[in-house]
């Protein structure tokens, strides 16, 4: 089966227009340019003194060049930031909202918060990752032929509580007859099951009067939820902080399970084990072995289901 797949902008390398900035390189270039010009000046004016202390930290010229190099780093970084702000792949926060507005897409308000609470509760908005993905699909939303990408964009945009969408046509093997389109909704609501009210809101949004082709009969349903918990034991070398390792391992596993919480996704024990082997910035790990008790096997959901983690428990043993 051929499925629409949007380009993952996060995997794109930084374009050449984004400059790699090095303070040391800039400083060396400044000193080199100065010494070349000064050498020429001494040829014309031999009475000028020799400068051979430029690398001393106490040399006033060196201090001046360091100051100028630092200022140049800041200026060049501003150029990088301006480029990122104008690029859908790299823009964030308000810059991303402006870029998405060019495509007719606005950030979803997930929770209005409560300004009258004590302390006030701030509103919750769609994350940059989710917002960027929807903005990327905006051109798909213009399709009048009922493409996969169009239904994906419309489904994700239909309501703030829509977390993920699956779209299935007759060729999918998912109980879809010719002329039908099955749209599966994963909800942000507790448990992930879409309520009848949410399904009704999505159905109204993807209506024949507004967005779906008149020839399509759309079936709106909730995703099935496959619940599981993660329980694991991590063995570490003596001297390692058990609590630090436990917290880092739980955070890494939680991040993986959150990334996989989507329609048609799977949970692989090998990926869980990799997450449990936490290390430092240099790639060194105090972990010598991991044992995963739960899940006992890979969690492979159906195409219209999502794996939801109900909890992560990591026990650390010093060996």
Characterization of the model:
By secondary structure, the protein is of the alpha/beta class. Helix content is 35%, strand content 20%. It has a three-stranded mixed beta sheet with strand order 3-4-5, covered by helices on one side. The chain has a three-stranded mixed beta sheet with strand order 8-6-10. Helix 6 links the parallel strand 4 and strand 5. The longest helix is centred in the first third of the chain and has 26 residues. It is extended. The two termini are 49 Å apart. The model has no long low-confidence stretch (mean pLDDT 92).
What brief labels describe this structure?
319 residues; three-stranded mixed β-sheet
Q: Describe the strand arrangement of the main beta sheet, using strand numbers.
A: 3-4-5
Biggest pleated-sheet summary? 3 strands, mixed
User: How many distinct helices?
Assistant: 8
Number of strands: 10
Secondary-structure-based class equals alpha/beta
Helix content: 25-40%
Order of helices and strands: HHHEEHHEEHEEHEHEEE
User: Which segments are poorly predicted (pLDDT under 50) over 5 or more consecutive residues?
Assistant: none
Strand content: 15-25%
Gyration radius, rounded? 28 Å
The overall pLDDT, averaged over residues, is 92
Distance between the termini: 49 Å
